[in-house]
Amino acid sequence: MAWLMTFIHLFCLFIVRMSALNFFPEKFELAEKHTSVTLTCRTDKDKITWRREDANSIVSILQSDFEILSGRDLTVIDLQEDLTGNYTCWSDTGLEDYTYLLLDKSKEATAFKINCTAETFSCTQNIKCAWTSDEFTAFRLRNTRDDGDWVSQSVDGEFFLPHSTNSYSEESERLLITGEAVSTCCYMKTEYSFYLRDIVKPADPSISICTIKNEGRDEQIVELEVKPPSTWPQPHSFFPLKHEIEYEIRHNGELKTKEWEEGSKVKVQGSITKLRVRCRDLLLLSQWSEWSKWKNVN
Ligand SMILES: *[C@@H]1O[C@H](CO)[C@@H](O)[C@H](O)[C@H]1NC(C)=O
Ligand SMILES: *[C@@H]1O[C@H](CO)[C@@H](O)[C@H](O)[C@H]1NC(C)=O
């Protein structure tokens, strides 16, 4: 008998896994734990019955202390996880309506923050956000300030949100990003508000080495030019960047850095093996970009 129980157990686990809610139900109702909620069957039929489909079963709903039937209404009392699921209502001719009842955990779910960056001030590039949690199985974000549509994750787990910020004028209103997450039982909503200028992180710049002058065994002058990231807004004189270079000294492998603000060209002196560059917005002191790839100096 034991093997049969094990088999049934495994089978149920399999079904639970298969039916994890990995999309947003088309229609859903929310209520907090221990509250009551009334679902209404949108139909013109008078005689209806209700069913609840949860992760691994379909239950016909009978009048009880927890579920009160009245005409086309079903009131769920003292909501807890076991009463969440897809509620369907049926007449003698078939399915009439459905709604997915979820436990709203917005106030209690463990804090996990939406994290966004933007490569530029310009609305030509979407804002890139990360948001995830082990407790939930589907996520979506929207730019509420600009009345944007819901956006789902791309294959590598990031969200790309359009916005209408004008890069040529002072940003007067914060962006407001709304996030919603669901799992088979539960729902949560969170908001994140910021100025675009505070999340700017330029893409990494590219470098070209212009001249190398050898002036003796250990003396070398390397002149290089840094190109702003292709997504950086133009004209570049209007959106100046500050740069930092990191370079390796040939004879002892020591790494040195140097920052500069004026222009895209810089000279480094000494015998060096390789170098790389990163940039940030000069006026607003944005986050630094990632470092460019190392470039060898011969
Ligand atoms: C709920 O049930 C209805 C009717 O069977 C179905 O169309 C809908 O996709 C179900 N929703 C979910 C999230 O399973
Ligand atoms: C936000 O995301 C960036 C890059 O994706 C990461 O480096 C940073 O640590 C994250 N910040 C937080 C607070 O999670």
User: What is the CATH homology-level superfamily of the largest domain?
Assistant: Immunoglobulins
Order of helices and strands: HEEEEEEEEEEEEEEEEEEEEE
Shape: elongated
Helix content: under 10%
Q: What is the rounded Rg?
A: 29 Å
Residue runs with pLDDT of under 50 for 5 or more positions: 10-18
Any idea of the CATH topology of the largest domain? Answer: Immunoglobulin-like
Strand content: 35-45%
- Tell me the distance between the termini: 75 Å
Number of helices: 1
User: Mean of residue pLDDT?
Assistant: 88
CATH class of the largest domain: Mainly Beta
What structural class do you assign from the helix and strand content?
A: mainly beta
Number of structural domains:
3
Q: What composes the largest sheet?
A: 8 strands, mixed
Protein name: Interleukin-12 subunit beta-like
Keywords: Disulfide bond, Glycoprotein, Immunoglobulin domain, Signal
Organism: Sinocyclocheilus grahami (Dianchi golden-line fish)
InterPro entries: FN3_sf (IPR036116), Ig-like_dom_sf (IPR036179), Ig-like_fold (IPR013783), IL-12 (IPR050676)
Write the layout of secondary structure elements.
Layout: H1 2-18, E1 28-31, E2 37-40, E3 49-54, E4 57-60, E5 67-70, E6 73-76, E7 85-91, E8 94-104, E9 115-117, E10 127-130, E11 138-143, E12 158-161, E13 175-182, E14 186-194, E15 206-214, E16 220-227, E17 241-249, E18 255-260, E19 265-269, E20 272-281, E21 295-296
Parallel strand pairs: 1-8, 8-14
Antiparallel strand pairs: 2-6, 3-4, 3-7, 5-6, 7-8, 9-10, 10-12, 11-13, 13-14, 15-16, 16-19, 17-18, 17-20, 20-21
The structure holds 2-acetamido-2-deoxy-beta-D-glucopyranose (2 copies).
The site of one 2-acetamido-2-deoxy-beta-D-glucopyranose has 6 residues, from strand 7 and strand 8.
Organism: Sinocyclocheilus grahami
Keywords: Disulfide bond, Glycoprotein, Immunoglobulin domain, Signal
Signal peptide: 1-20
